[in-house]
Fold this sequence. Notes:
The complex is a heterodimer. In chain A, 46% of the residues lie in helices and 14% in strands. By secondary structure, chain A is of the alpha+beta class. Chain A folds into three domains: 32-127, Butyryl-Coa Dehydrogenase, subunit A, domain 1 (Orthogonal Bundle), CATH 1.10.540.10; 131-240, Butyryl-CoA Dehydrogenase, subunit A, domain 2; 246-381, Butyryl-CoA Dehydrogenase, subunit A, domain 3. Chain A has a four-stranded mixed sheet with strand order 1-4-5-8, with helices on one face. In chain A, a hairpin with an 8-residue loop joins strand 6 (205-210) and strand 7 (219-229). In chain A, helix 2 packs parallel to helix 5 (76-88) and helix 11 runs antiparallel to helix 12. The radius of gyration of chain A is 21 Å and the shape is globular. By secondary structure, chain B is an alpha+beta fold. Chain B has two domains: 2-171, no CATH class; 178-331, Butyryl-CoA Dehydrogenase, subunit A, domain 3, CATH 1.20.140.10. Chain B has twelve helices and ten strands. In chain B, the strands form three sheets. In chain B, strands 1-4-5-8 form a four-stranded mixed sheet. The interface between A and B is large, with 55 and 57 residues.
Amino acid sequence: xxxxxxxxxxxxxxxxxxxxxxxxxxxxxxxxxxxxxxxxxxxxxxxxxxxxxxxxxxxxxxxxxxxxxxxxxxxxxxxxxxxxxxxxxxxxxxxxxxxxxxxxxxxxxxxxxxxxxxxxxxxxxxxxxxxxxxxxxxxxxxxxxxxxxxxxxxxxxxxxxxxxxxxxxxxxxxxxxxxxxxxxxxxxxxxxxxxxxxxxxxxxxxxxxxxxxxxxxxxxxxxxxxxxxxxxxxxxxxxxxxxxxxxxxxxxxxxxxxxxxxxxxxxxxxxxxxxxxxxxxxxxxxxxxxxxxxxxxxxxxxxxxxxxxxxxxxxxxxxxxxxxxxxxxxxxxxxxxxxxxxxxxxxxxxxxxxxxxxxxxxxxxxxxxxxxxxxxxxxxxxxxx
Amino acid sequence: xxxxxxxxxxxxxxxxxxxxxxxxxxxxxxxxxxxxxxxxxxxxxxxxxxxxxxxxxxxxxxxxxxxxxxxxxxxxxxxxxxxxxxxxxxxxxxxxxxxxxxxxxxxxxxxxxxxxxxxxxxxxxxxxxxxxxxxxxxxxxxxxxxxxxxxxxxxxxxxxxxxxxxxxxxxxxxxxxxxxxxxxxxxxxxxxxxxxxxxxxxxxxxxxxxxxxxxxxxxxxxxxxxxxxxxxxxxxxxxxxxxxxxxxxxxxxxxxxxxxxxxxxxxxxxxxxxxxxxxxxxxxxxxxxxxxxxxxxxxxxxxxxxxxxxxxxxxxxxxxxxxxxxxxxxxxxx
Lengths: 385, 334
């Protein structure tokens, strides 16, 4: 028996998480901005600070953090339900998204007490929005090639030069957590990398939004021109950046956001099918439900391990690769079916949603670790590397 | 605990060589006798009937083992039938099977098409018109499908024989179709065989040397094995929905999800297994053929993934659910 397979177990959501679902639905029924479905389909690309602040006022930003820092001390299951409901509703979560799921846990785990006290309450109140500065023009999947560099100044602070690219909503965020080199060269691979919290309002920072193929500008390029960082911009230990980055991968690779990117289309299609759908439509719908059910089970299984404080990186990679495959299949299959009859009347918003997802869905298996990188991780977990 | 004991039992009494003999037509009587005496067939039966009364989740590992060993006997069917109402099983020594369907021909004959184990079964249990029927297979005209190493058959009871061949009829419990049991069983067998298929393929990739290194070191192979692991994991997860903890009867939609997902996984996993093995995997002598033979057979037994996906899609649309996620959460107890 292969151990990897045995580590996936059926999990039941705890009662507290179930109860939370009703609360969230009630909140969304009144507070969700009325967007057409093609805007809803942008979900975790949709930036709406006002909505994020409404969520925060309910205590639903930074939910897993301790109460002392403004969090809700919710477990991984509660967070799972929250994210699941937000994504199924197509809520615009991008403003607080990265801070909530990546930056805050990182600061909580590796930051100093002063950093925690400064940043975490602001994140929980949706007053501090974060982006992640990982990729560079010459460092995509090969993150060890990062060339941006921070040099220690005599006064203890740091001077940052270089540039980051594909940074989600950098032009709308307050802070970036940047992975940069503090010693050595790319020859030293994962050694000599460090993480900094960069205040994006500092002098010497230029942000250029990049227009995407669907007409949106969610990502951007960020230039650092001798940016002077205070000594306490360093997060964690100097030279430990790589280990800090990879310690959290299981969180970002196994959750609902790796399953639900096309869910708005699937649900809109179900509504359209209720009136007229032949056997082929019904079979395809059944197949997508079958896949979603299995995926959700796998994803919850990883969540249970996270709730126990484990870091199931390989299992998370497996869920993400399978999950993003599912997310990409939805627009492909639904597109083929709803346009199988050229004479059929269709709601324009449904057509726009299909077109948008067909174009943008390749990003689902790029962001957060490409398909090729993930399959390498799985192969290592199988003992092949 | 049952799983380990069953694994030991099958390793001893039904090793690969024995599977090959049985598949090529050797009498199953001795092995069946051993199985009946072993008590494993009573794992789900109530304590009143001398069973271990294990729930579905407790039974699943045993069925995985059964699938991994590709035992060519209706062991799973026997286990299930011992958990159904008493009237449906006359004699524990007889080989039972489940018919995917039972239809009345215009002539009045009863036809059960593509019955697994149809050539060797003594009893057939089928659902007809809201009832579970127990039919004597010995009184049917059996038409073997003629598949290589497979005892599936069309069974026909001529009108004149039906009264005599019908041993029992019981009203089906409301909402409990026999096909739910069949789907759950074959989903579990598939998940077990898919797991074994992956193990064989991983082992082979590590021992086979080409271009001076084991082929498991090639990225192209590694990525295929990663995909294989994904689909096996999904099939196993879906199977756990059909075999819920604390329950003794599977529910229809979870069983349908399980059968559909496991059946579809065959279409990904079996081709990768053969691609990695190369020509040796195609030989009768090498064990992979035993596994992929059953994978393809079980994928279509009691309906392919299209049948079960259609049932699921229809249930979602007719159930008035606004979202796929709501439907799933309502169907699989979470």
